[in-house]
Specification:
By secondary structure, this protein is of the alpha+beta class. It has two domains: 3-57 and 154-201, no CATH class; 65-150, no CATH class. 37% of the residues lie in helices and 22% in strands. It contains six helices and eight strands, in the order αααβββββαβββαα. Strands 1, 2, 3, 4, 5, 6, 7 and 8 form an eight-stranded mixed β-sheet that branches. β4 and β5 form a beta hairpin. The chain starts with a helix and ends with a helix.
Length: 202
């Protein structure tokens, strides 16, 4: 489904349910961005259980190798890639030796750092997300390979035809419209949304 089709169905619903509602391009693009993120987050949560979803997410996977554009840590800190949405794996390179880096939350970080037995070593390093940066221990590690999912590009509708489409291959009305309608204050059953979409094609 492209954005023109989506907006046509949305307009049908709006005119039928709330004819007084004025749908501006600004408001539409705000909810398109939110819906895009919601859909991606849901696909991400399903990816571990469903191989088909993993295939759908493959175009959004970014791999930075230890020898090809690695993350560079200085005093244990590295800048997080601006398009990183979800970290998948990290490995540290020291000389010719490559070790997996455990990606941990704040609680696990504190537990590991506060225990002499489990404290991270060059053989068993850890890393945590600080928002815009990553912190690694031991801080002697300088180069890491890193794989992550980036966000799909933000869809954008202009009412003039120069649109930025959803980046998913086969996105459907029922994947997108319920989120958008809900964000715009409409509550419509899925079956009714399908009926509107079918009417729009006639």
């Amino acid at each position: 489904m492209n954005l023109v089709d989506l907006v046509q169905v949305l307009t049908l619903i709006k005119n039928d349910k709330k004819p007084e509602y004025v749908l501006t391009a600004e408001n539409l693009n705000r909810v398109l961005d939110l819906a895009n993120r919601k859909i991606f987050s849901e696909k991400l949560s399903k990816a571990e259980q469903d191989g088909r979803v993993q295939d759908e997410l493959a175009p959004f996977k970014v791999v930075r190798g230890v020898d090809d554009m690695p993350l560079v840590f200085v005093n244990g800190l590295a800048q997080k890639p601006s398009n990183c949405f979800y970290a998948l794996a990290m490995n540290a390179k020291r000389g010719t030796d490559v070790k997996e880096v455990e990606l941990v939350n704040e609680l696990h970080w504190a537990e590991r750092m506060g225990n002499a037995i489990t404290k991270p070593t060059l053989r068993d390093p850890i890393c945590r997300d600080l928002g815009t940066r990553y912190q690694i221990e031991p801080s002697a590690i300088q180069y890491c390979g890193f794989s992550y999912y980036r966000l799909p590009r933000t869809p954008y509708f202009t009412f003039k035809g120069a649109n930025v489409e959803f980046e998913y291959d086969n996105i459907t009305v029922l994947e997108v419209l319920p989120y958008i309608l809900n964000l715009l204050g409409f509550s419509i059953p899925s079956a009714e949304i399908v009926a509107y979409a079918q009417n729009e094609k006639k």
